[in-house]
Amino acid sequence: MEFAIGTVLSGGSLLIGFKGAIDSYQLISNIAKARPQSDSLVTKAAIEKQRLASWGEYNGISGTSNNNQPPVYDDSVKKLLLRTLASVENTLTDMDQLVNRYGLQPVALDLGQNPAADSQLYPKSTLVEALAKTMKSGGSKTLKRDKIKWAVNDNAKFENLCAQLKYWNDSLYEIVKPPHQALIERVLSTHISSAAVSPGRFSHRNQYLASFSALSQLKHRMRQDPQSPVLEVKTTELTIENTQTVVATVGASSRSIGAYQSLIPVVIEWKAIDNAKNHQASVERVKKVVSRLAVSKDPDFRTLECFGLVDDGTRKRRLGFVHRLPAPDVESDKLPTPLSELLTMAKTGNVHMPPLGARYRLAKALSMALLLIQTSDIHHRSIHADNILFFRKQAASGTLPISDPFLSGFGFAKLADDQQNLDEPDEKYVHRRPEYIPACTPYTKLDDIYGLGVVLFEIATWKPVEHWKKPGMSARQFRDELIKNLPELGGLVGGIYQQAVHRCLTGDFGLQSANADGEELERAFWSSVVKELEMCNA
């Protein structure tokens, strides 16, 4: 069905076209949800709807932007945008089919006092409203779930529909690209669960992404999906080739490289169990964390795949996390390099500070990783430079991929609802939030965010954070010292990065204390740290 496109196009007509396309997404989502087997298809439609909503908000034609001025495009661009929006709506709904089936007639849109708008554009928006009214009223034309199947009887057709929607959205993004496009699409495509896609949750980008619908669905999926079993590895199945003791800030922990069953190269992280009483409880707690992380295979988690645990059987009572190497092309005969080692080498003049772009990418990767981990309701409890690892590539002349970090050190991690205090990381207070007092105050997500803030400070200056530690400083005094030196970051990495670090160190996300450890904090961390860092490029 062709739609008339006016010769004089305005922001108002773009808004009408955008509204028609968005409303049609809502209709097709309702129809698709009537079929129990269509969950994955509903998800695909939901993803494409949000891509369109994000695009519309950025371009000021969603009706929800803070910018009340219509977008300024020349007529050729407007016409192209309108035709593309019309194609989106045509793809989503067939008006004649709806009218014939449900006996509804479209009503001409009232465009108010805007003479430039085309009154023939998108009558289906009113049709959608009429459908909604009949569903709400429960009258004779109520659309029952067993009737709304015409659009999803053939899954192949619906798959084709979703492919068409993606094509039209791609076209809109090619015409006018908003910022954060890659970040938006990465989060949406990876983390919207096929279950519990609620029609009312979709609006513009800030409302949807900042309200964390996508990542909330990740949380739902991680809670509901079957947990992956954790293999109990025998010491006889491991060949240990090299061991590295980590002493900078975490006490007597260590890592080893070796092979599992003489075939699979592995990295083993060892955690000391302080007594036999806590041993089994610690093992069970760790298994829960590892199992939850295993639900998602998303590389943005920046975690190594832990497929097994090993008890070394010695009097030391060590528990080993057996990890696969992150990729087949990394050097399997060398231990990974922790960030703390690179910072120390830079301090002594043995290595140079990496380029700004590489440090930006490192900061972005770590902030996104923490966001996903926190959305999974996991407290890491030991975020610092010793637990950020880099693996050398075999064909890279020994250089380290600084922009490709991995977050390790989950030996003290626990699920957010785990209230037991079995043990605490043996770390110095430089990475510990002053408000957290072991065995006295509960550990919260703000504590992990503080640890990230310290790491971001180190990445910006490329110096160990101990550089700013003076003898006799308390944890609070040390934080004050870092905050006092934050202006130095402005010259090194820019004001946006500096403000993100400030929020992490102070925990000032504008929240009441009751919301300081829930989804409100996740929303705030997303919008004021993760999304802000995405704007840093060099």
Number of domains: 2
Main beta-sheet strand count, sense and barrel state:
6 strands, mixed
CATH class of the largest domain: Mainly Alpha
Unreliable stretches covering 5 or more consecutive residues: 1-12, 65-70, 98-132, 134-154, 187-217, 246-252
CATH superfamily of the largest domain: Transferase(Phosphotransferase) domain 1
Q: Encode the helix/strand succession as letters.
A: HHHHHHHHHEEEEHEEEHHEEEEHHHHH
Q: What count of helical segments does DSSP give?
A: 17
The CATH topology name of the largest domain reads: Transferase(Phosphotransferase), domain 1
Could you report the average pLDDT, rounded to the nearest whole number? 70
State the helical fraction. Answer: 40-55%
Instruction: Find the structural class using helix and strand composition.
Output: alpha+beta
Strand % is 5-15%
Radius of gyration: 27 Å
Biggest sheet: strands side by side, in what order? 1-5-6-4-3-2
CATH architectural label of the largest domain: Orthogonal Bundle
Separation, N- and C-terminal Cα atoms: 47 Å
Keywords: Amyloid, Prion
Protein name: Prion-inhibition and propagation-domain-containing protein
Pfam family, one: DUF7580
InterPro entries: DUF7580 (IPR056002), HeLo_dom (IPR029498), HeLo_sf (IPR038305), Kinase-like_dom_sf (IPR011009), Prot_kinase_dom (IPR000719)
